[in-house]
Amino acid sequence: MHQGSGILSTRQRRLAWLGFLLAALQAPVSARLVSDDSWLFSLCVALMVATVIIADDATRRRPTGATGD
Questions:
Q1: How do the domains of the chain map onto residue ranges?
Q2: CA pair distance 50, 63, nearest whole angstrom
Q3: What share of the chain is helix, strand, coil (3-state, %, to 5)?
Q4: Keyword set for this entry (predicted)?
Q5: Measured between alpha carbons, how far is 24 from 45 in angstroms, rounded to an integer?
Q6: Using one digit for the tens of pLDDT, what is the confidence trace for 8-39?
């Protein structure tokens, strides 16, 4: 069974993981240091990047030639 290619290249996938980790780590740090709720923006960015990584995983695990019917 040959796996399909994802929506991200290998380099983009590594950068997405790096961006996710940085945003996820920055949220609690800024929550502690800043009195307003601007840390929620970092959390939302981390969740959006995680969604893209999950979508890439799903397309990579789908066999080549499989349709989404």
A1: 10-61
A2: 22
A3: 70, 5, 30
A4: Membrane, Transmembrane, Transmembrane helix
A5: 8
A6: 998 999 999 999 999 999 999 998 998 888 88
Query: Which token pair is 6?
Result: 């994802």
Closest by CA to 6, choosing from 55, 49, 45, is: 55
Residue 6's pLDDT is what? 83
Predicted confidence at residue 66, as pLDDT, reads 64
Q: What pTM did the predictor assign? A: 0.77
**Distance between CA atoms of residues 46 and 7, nearest Å:** 18
Token pair 């929550």: residue? 31
Contact between 1 and 62 under an 8 Å Cβ cutoff? The reply is: no
